[in-house]
Write a structure and sequence with these properties.
homodimer; 396 residues; Alpha-Beta Plaits; 10 helices; 34% helix
């Protein structure tokens, strides 16, 4: 039995559109920041035993259908790797385990309402835990996670991670690769602004499928715009150039949502609160005459903010001022502590926006973090000795 | 003294972006439907007299600065044409008038709150009235109106009008041209859904300037997407193929708003109500398995709906059902009468949307109409014998 944790990642160059739906091969490369697992993580325990009758999976305390094709892809691929290693004598672990059935138990420490795609951390953690269980070591692990959920491949590494689209039709070169470790840019900080969604949005799988089929602009984005943006993004991350990093991040988020609008029928992930957050960020940067804060939005209305630690307290106070919260203090800002500060009247006057009470539910304050980790303490296993979820795994 | 009226037009292939800011030359061709002046019009009276000391202009009852550069462009261009005709002996009217100062009085019969760009009908009517006053007849008139406001050139013709971008740097071939007259497609009907705007949007002049400077997708739209869409749009209008016309109209509206989002900082013209109207139209069409209704949005949240007269009563009732109005009957639906009808429970159930009370203020019901017209009845002059606005011109 092995337990591991896996991180969430937030793209700054967005993945949108597949060239192969089965292998989950993208039409463009993408790049993300892996978030710290102290704030946001998936924990997965996997046990295998000759006594298990079938593969089973429990997600957040509820048993789910193991026959899900993406889940099956990951299981099959890892078992294939494990058998290959066993046959070549390269495995260091119990070589018989690969033929046993597995029980998988996985929980997220963040609510679905946070609007953070749990499929990335979920599949990354699943694949990493399976690899530990079966003693598989491979640079191809991210290709396995990719077949669970595209962006999951990026969650196999910490820090700054690119997913190269690759050229091969079998997807073997469509892999994640670290661009900078989690300690590369220690001043970089991340805020997740959790917005109230009025209605359920179109899921990203069907959304990107429709975009590929209908958006004329998407092809140009993938073929022409993204390749040069990837190069620039890697350069500005290496240089820790926040203004350039922030501006490119915002532009790429906006272009992704533009593609959604150019889709037919159009897809809207941003709502009026998202628009106001965008407006607030631009007015804040405008006031200082430089990009101090950047937003990015995925397939939902929640904003993820990148900034540097020096500017964090003031910007959090700006958010608190223009989106007066329902709850205060630590209830509003969860995660890494943020010093309190006062806003100048001049700043408030220059931003010149009507406050939107309760527009933002709460903030999660975090930073870049490492890739998946093995949890040594057996007390943290989510499965009991009987191979069934512990009670604590249901309410965690 | 001459009085004329001029129409509003609503683009179905959008104009967004100039290649020459002074001459107002666009980066792509565009195409619009001229709306009927029984519902929406600008009325302009222009007098000239040796006794006037200077050119003066009154807009909606208020004197405005005549030195506005775009106004000056139009006045100078028309006077240049008039002098040319006088010198070549081609003018049929009083040839001395061209050296006199003019008094211009102009009113719109629609409130600014309707969100219909009044600059198109305003400049088209101004240029047409000046041409009547000075006896100028020219195919270049639309090039003069274009220098007041780009889309004004399309309001010089009735029915279906394209504005060809042209190739010359002096703009002489950047002209409007009729594709089909106002009687070409009598079943086509138009609804303006007036939505409450929460905040003032970015003006279209500065918006398109920023788009040209920052949107990577705009160049591709202008160079690659629009040329083929123009051809297709002209073809489907000639064939009166509503499903194809409607789908292309919606796609081009969405792409224009996608470009606004790809602009940096991004521009949002659509609000949550606009999103809901878009959603309602797609669900309505989905129910019937064909495109019966199409939306288009300009630089604001108001929707303009194209449909055929057979489907008009039901769709108006659908709007009334899902956007329960504050006022009823003729207060809610202004303009051309719309028969009342009942909705089937099946339709309502299938559309499956939460109603949004008061989301739409009112509807203007209209259709395609003719280009600018001369008003013969001197009682309709907006200027009195003294060359100053009549009292009625202020409150019209």
């Amino acid at each position: 039995m092995v337990t591991c944790t896996g991180p969430v990642n937030i793209a700054v160059i967005k993945y949108w559109g597949k060239r192969d739906e089965d292998l989950i091969l993208p039409i463009n490369s993408s790049l993300s920041v892996t978030l710290h697992q102290d704030q946001l993580k998936t924990t997965t325990t996997i046990a295998c035993s000759r006594n298990f009758q079938q593969d089973r999976i429990w997600l957040n305390g509820k048993e789910e259908d193991i026959s899900n094709p993406r889940l099956q892809s990951c299981l099959q691929e890892i078992r294939r790797f494990a058998r290959k290693r066993r046959n070549t004598g390269g495995s260091t672990s119990d070589v018989s385990s690969v033929s046993h059935k597995v029980h998988i138990c996985s929980v997220n420490n963040f609510p679905t309402a946070a609007g953070l795609a749990s499929s990335a951390s979920g599949y990354a953690c699943l694949v990493y835990t399976l690899s530990q269980l079966f003693g598989v070591e491979s640079e191809q692990l991210s290709a396995v996670a990719r077949q669970g959920s595209g962006s999951a491949c990026r969650s196999l590494y910490g820090g700054f991670v690119q997913w190269k689209l690759g050229e091969r039709s079998d997807g073997k070169d469509s892999l994640a690769e670290q661009v900078g470790s989690e300690s590369h840019w220690p001043e970089l900080r991340v805020l997740v602004l959790v917005v109230s969604a009025e209605q359920k949005s179109v899921g990203s799988t069907s959304g990107m499928h429709t975009s590929v089929g209908t958006s004329q602009l998407l092809k140009y984005r993938a073929d022409v715009v993204v390749p040069s943006r990837m190069e620039e993004m890697i350069r500005v991350i290496r240089q820790r150039d926040f203004p350039a990093f922030g501006e490119l991040t915002m532009k790429d988020s906006n272009q992704f949502h533009a593609i959604c609008l150019d889709t037919y029928p159009p897809i809207f992930y941003l709502n009026n609160i998202s628009h106001r957050i965008i407006s607030l960020v631009h007015r804040y940067n405008q006031y200082y005459g430089e990009t101090r804060v950047a937003y990015t939005f995925d397939a939902g209305p929640n904003a993820v903010i990148y900034t540097l630690e020096d500017h964090l307290p003031e910007f959090v106070q700006v958010v608190r001022h223009f989106f007066p919260p329902e709850v205060n203090g630590a209830e509003f800002v969860k995660g890494l502590p943020v010093c309190s500060t006062e806003l100048s009247e001049d700043l408030k006057r220059n931003i010149n926006m009507e406050p939107t009470p309760k527009g933002i539910h709460y903030i999660i304050s975090t930073k870049a973090g490492p890739g998946p980790c093995v949890v040594k303490d057996p007390n943290h296993h989510l499965l009991g000795a009987d191979g069934l979820p512990k009670k604590s795994a249901i309410s965690d």
